[in-house]
Amino acid sequence: MSKLLRQSLLMLVLLTVLTGVAYPLLVTGLAQALFPGQANGSLIVKDGKAVGSTLIGQQFSDPKYFWGRLSATTPNPYNGGSSSGSNLGPTNPALTEAAKQRIAALRAVDRGNAAPVPVDLVTASASGLDPEISPAAAQYQVARVARLRGLPVAQVAALVAAHTRGRQLGVLGEPRVNVLQLNLALDALQKR
Q1: pLDDT tens for residues 49-79?
Q2: Integer CA distances (angstroms), 107 to 104, 116, 167, in order
Q3: Which is it for the CA torsion 92, 95, 101, 103, positive or negative?
Q4: DSSP character at residue 47
Q5: Is 171 exposed, middle or buried (0-12, 13-18, 19+ CB in 10 A)?
Q6: Strand pairing of 132-133 and 43-46?
Q7: pTM of whole model > 0.85?
């Protein structure tokens, strides 16, 4: 019996070292060597300081910035620790009311814009953390952002086009615009 207990403890220690120490160190080392940006959270660094990630949206409420999708996380928007969808179905009155409020907010900051509001500006993504919007959602906001920043509409539209990423591998997903990267590019454009 003691021989069996000794062998069991030895296997426990050996497997703990292999799977709990050696394997994680190997995978972490490979990730840092081969994909350092992704392994460290796909951070966006500005002036030597991390300002966000390309993977998690941020709250922009100032009308001179492009606005992203709604966040489904509460109590703080875009909180990665409480990521989840709103679980509101298309016939849920709460979803309809939230969409009406967002449309009203968009119309209030851009009174002259009578274009239909793109659906991704009034709904949250499945994770509630989506950092990207559709090119249509970005185009919807171009005139407002250009006007409030004193920039030509064509220049802001060109910036949106430059930050539009296509489908992955040409067929997966939809074209998209990262809101944080676009807003940082806008700030850099105005500093010049």
Answers
A1: 988 888 888 989 899 999 999 887 777 888 8
A2: 5, 10, 30
A3: negative
A4: T
A5: exposed
A6: unpaired
A7: no
